[in-house]
Amino acid sequence: MPLKIGLEIHGYLTTKEKLFCNCKNEHKNKEAKPNTFICPTCTGQPGSKPMLPNEEAIKKLVQIGLMLNCKINHEPEKLIWWRKHYNWPDLPKGYQNTISGTYANPVGVKGNFLGIGITEVHLEEDPAAWDPETGEIDYNRSGAPLVEIVTDPDFKSAEQVAEWLKQMTLTMSYIKALDSDAGIKADVNISTTGERVEIKNMNSISEIIKAIAYEIKRQEKEQVKNKETRQWNSAKGQTIKMREKESHADYRFIKEPDLPVINLKKAEVELIKKALPESPMEKLEKIIKKHKISDYDAKVLTANLEIVEMFEKIVEKVSPKMAVQWVTVELLGMLNYNKKTLNEVKINPEHLVSLIKSTEDKKITELKAKDILRSWNKGSKALDVRSQEAISNTKEIEAFVEQAIKQNEKAWQDYKAGNVQALNFLIGAVMKLSNKRADYQTAKKLIEKKR
Ligand SMILES: [Zn+2]
After folding, report:
1. Contact, 8 vs 150, CB < 8 A?
2. What would the DSSP string read from start to end of 351-390?
3. How far is the CA of 19 from the centre of ligand 1 (A)?
């Protein structure tokens, strides 16, 4: 039997509120104290009832389904909330509300993303966070809307899984539906020669790869006779047996009596579909065609929505060549160096356009422009081009040249004796003295003339 791998991916939706109450959906806010975004509903108090499900969450779920090319189930199909029962300290109600399960009609079905079949896309509430060491429970995330994406067992290797997950999360970032800070949690189903094994508890692509590689090797040695669930232990780099896999019946699914059938109309789905943004692939093809840029540059730009949006805005005002250079080299270089995102540094397209235009008009030198860009991070708010304007006035530069020679007598003598490196050194000194504002060519000519 050939190797078969399937994924169940959980991601947190970026909604303002939780799924069945008005509590803030901010469980990933690191400054938040435990148990601050809670109410009787999301802590499962006796007698509490869920509110109508968060519409924003349903809309985002539909967007995700559409981006994964799923068929969206809408009225007259019945989209029903179920109670999935299990006993665990993180689940005060004793059940989790979900649109999935044995008898469920999930919202998105039969999709396909980059050649991998999508079994279903559905929504459920997250349980609380339980710390087995201390016994403490934090209900901030209890009731947070979770999307679950289930793939068909179409993957043939760990590398394929990694590449697909990268593309999938990038695509999700384009619709801003998933909380990227919260990351993803994934369970992996894997079968090599025997029964299917489910590996739980992985929250990064690199861990998923390691777990798959480990499990393939393990199953070469130990025949898997019964379906089982294993846990990934990243510290040990091993999967550990948790239990023989429970069947759906063990969850005692029943229809949720306190929630109505989801009212999702065909027209609504059509509207969401029309308003969908471009996918990374569509954006890539578009910018290559429209601006005649290289595949490589287009890939760098589209790997991040903020960055490609910045490019698309500034390329309306400056040449594609300059836009590519300033965004992919200067801007990204600065961000990577400082480990910041574009949102964090508050550089807007107007800033960048004004910077680029000032160098094109030779108002400031390119070196100076790069300096200004880098200094943004240190708190300078506006682009102060005027005080940084390039000096092309020969007399002013001459003064700097004389000063540079005076301060670097040895270099001057070396240059006069024919040392070319000494010339570069002297030009450098002029640039330093002029705060990088002196015109390079003029400075060079003036020094040469003096020899
Ligand atoms: Zn609540």
Report:
1. yes
2. HHHHHHHHHHTTSS-HHHHHHHHHHGGGT--S---GGGPP
3. 9
Instruction: Give 223 Cα–ligand 1 centroid separation in angstroms.
Output: 46
HSE (side-chain half, CA atoms, 13 Å) at 324? 15
240-257: average pLDDT: 77
**Tens digits of per-residue pLDDT, 386-419?**
556 677 778 888 888 998 999 999 999 999 898 8
CA of 133 to the centre of ligand 1 (A): 25
> What's the CA gap between 177 and 13, in Å, rounded?
6
Q: pLDDT exceeding 70 applies to what percent of the chain?
A: 95
Q: What count of Cα atoms within 13 Å lies in the side-chain half-sphere of residue 68?
A: 36
Torsion region of 418: left, alpha or beta (phi above 0 gives left; psi -120 to 50 gives alpha): left
Q: How far is the centre of ligand 1, averaged over its atoms, from the C-alpha of 122 (Å)?
A: 21
How far, in Å, from the CA of 50 to the mean position of ligand 1? Answer: 9
pLDDT classification of 379: cutoffs 50, 70, 90: very low
- Measured CA to CA, the distance from residue 144 to residue 13 in angstroms comes to 8
Q: Helices in 84-229 by DSSP H: which ranges?
A: 158-174, 205-221
22 Cα–ligand 1 center, Å:
6
User: Residue 76 — left, alpha, or beta (φ > 0 → left; ψ -120 to 50 → alpha)?
Assistant: alpha
Question: What is the reported pLDDT for 381?
Answer: 47
Burial label for 389, CB within 10 Å (0-12, 13-18, 19+), is middle
> How many CB atoms neighbour CB 355 within 10 A?
26
* Residue 248, amino acid: H
Residue 245 per-residue DSSP state: P
Chain length of the chain: 451
Strands 145-151, 4-12: parallel, antiparallel or unpaired by DSSP? antiparallel
Domains in the chain, start-ordered, CATH in brackets?
4-274 (no CATH), 280-388 (no CATH), 394-450 (1.10.10.410)
What is the CA(189)–ligand 1 centre distance, in A?
A: 33
DSSP string across 383-416: ---GGGPPB--HHHHHHHHHHHHHHTHHHHHHHH
- 62, two tokens: 């539909």
CA 128 to ligand 1 center in whole angstroms: 11
Is the pTM for the entire model greater than 0.85?
no
Q: How confident is the model at residue 100 (pLDDT cuts 50, 70, 90)?
A: confident
CB 23 within 8 A of CB 143: yes
- The two three-digit tokens of residue 83, written as one number: 């109670």
pLDDT in tens, 163-215: 999 999 999 999 999 887 777 889 999 988 778 899 987 888 889 999 999 99
